[in-house]
Write a structure and sequence with these properties.
The chain is an alpha/beta fold. It has 8 helices and 18 strands. The longest helix is centred in the N-terminal third of the chain and has 20 residues.
Length: 374
């Protein structure tokens, strides 16, 4: 079964974002089998050819898929928009000592922003992708729900898309496990049926991250300290580290310290200081509450506190919490259980069962002990 409805009319056109991977290929396949007038759109949004970007091969794979399915393939570059709206934000957040997630903005600004509008200019009534999520029709616009395949669910990355846009979006893979998607591709003779999933930053790919950042951000070395102020080493710049990170610290055995791994516990931007602790479960790595910046609702905004579940990172299990909306548009989230390495700049995303309620950028956190006492 797939979330692939028949077209509203025999001439209804859908543009499928063909990435060159198996997921978008099967999305196009299922829509064509359902009777849609299907055309493909390949987006090349990173113009830095340095050996890590796979755009050239991905385009050839998308062309092969389009040929096998006998559908037209359009090609467009939104590189300027990506650099301005996504990558620019990505760099500014790192400069501020935070850890952003560019894939969320990429979905909002590029895939379900620029690409969706481009699809309309191509005469399409709908835009489709190979995302693993479900759009279920409710009283108003469709609601964003988790995919049936919990291991592949991507609703976390879609929470910032304006809810009104979902009325013109199709996600045919929402009901399918990944194994069935590959089986569909194999039966249809699509050469990408066994192509590995892409990883790394959206459109930029997988590459040595510190080296990549170093091309755009100045290195600003500073002290590495223990919580009590003991100097333990020198970091290369706060932007190159994230909370909860183990490894890459240049900290070996230290006299007077136990033989335990070191973890990043805090980045004190004002002092340009990296604070590290020993032990995976050190108390300074745990937060009992967080406050977001402006919360983006996918459902009618709520004014009173309510129970829900929350993820503070992709692939995290849902965490029970109390969400308290605030008058300034932010929310306070109090967790039932302490959360490890909650990271400012990342996103907190809320759910009611399988339905995604919305999310916001994590602004600040409260230690588990203080949150419990509040």
């Amino acid at each position: 079964m797939s979330t692939c409805p028949p077209p509203p009319a025999c001439t209804a056109r859908v543009i499928v974002g063909l990435s060159g991977g198996v997921d978008s290929a099967v999305a196009a396949l299922l829509l064509k089998q359902a009777g849609w007038d299907v055309q493909g759109l390949y987006m090349s949004n990173w113009d830095d050819e340095d050996g890590y970007c796979t755009a050239a091969q991905d385009f050839q794979d998308a062309r092969a898929v389009a040929s096998e399915l006998a559908i037209p393939l359009h090609r467009v570059s939104f590189a300027a928009q990506y650099r301005e709206r996504v990558f620019g934000y990505f760099l500014s957040e790192h400069r501020a000592g935070r850890t952003p997630n560019p894939d969320v903005l990429c979905n909002r600004e590029i895939k379900f922003g620029e690409a969706l509008r481009y699809a309309r200019r191509l005469g399409a009534t709908h835009f489709a992708t190979g995302h693993y999520a479900r759009l279920l029709t409710g009283a108003a616009e469709p609601g964003l729900h988790k995919a049936r395949d919990a291991a592949k669910d991507q609703s976390y990355f879609l929470h910032a898309v304006p809810p009104g846009e979902f009325a013109r979006v199709l996600m045919p893979l929402g009901e399918l496990p990944k194994s069935e998607v590959r089986a569909h591709a194999r039966r249809a003779g699509l050469a990408v049926f066994d192509k590995p999933d892409s990883t790394g930053i959206c459109f930029i790919g997988e590459r040595p991250f510190r080296e990549f950042l170093g091309r755009y951000l100045a290195r600003s070395p500073g002290p590495i300290e223990s919580p009590d102020g003991e100097r333990l080493g020198t970091h290369e710049g706060l932007t190159f580290y994230t909370l909860g990170q183990r490894g890459g610290l240049g900290i070996g055995g230290r006299p007077g310290h136990a033989e335990q791994a070191w973890y990043v516990a805090a980045k004190e931007v004002a002092r340009n200081t990296l604070v590290i602790v020993q032990g995976h479960d050190h108390p300074l790595l745990s937060s009992g509450a967080l406050t977001t910046e402006n919360w983006h609702w996918l459902v009618p905004a709520r004014g009173a506190a309510f129970r829900c579940t929350v993820k503070v990172r992709y692939r995290q299990a849902d965490q029970p919490a109390l969400l308290e909306p605030r008058a300034d548009g932010s929310v306070l989230i109090r967790f039932d259980h302490p959360q490890r390495a909650v990271t400012p700049g990342q996103y907190a995303v809320a759910y009611d069962g399988d339905r995604c309620l919305g999310g916001g950028v994590i602004g600040s956190t409260a230690p588990a002990v203080l949150a419990a006492a509040a």
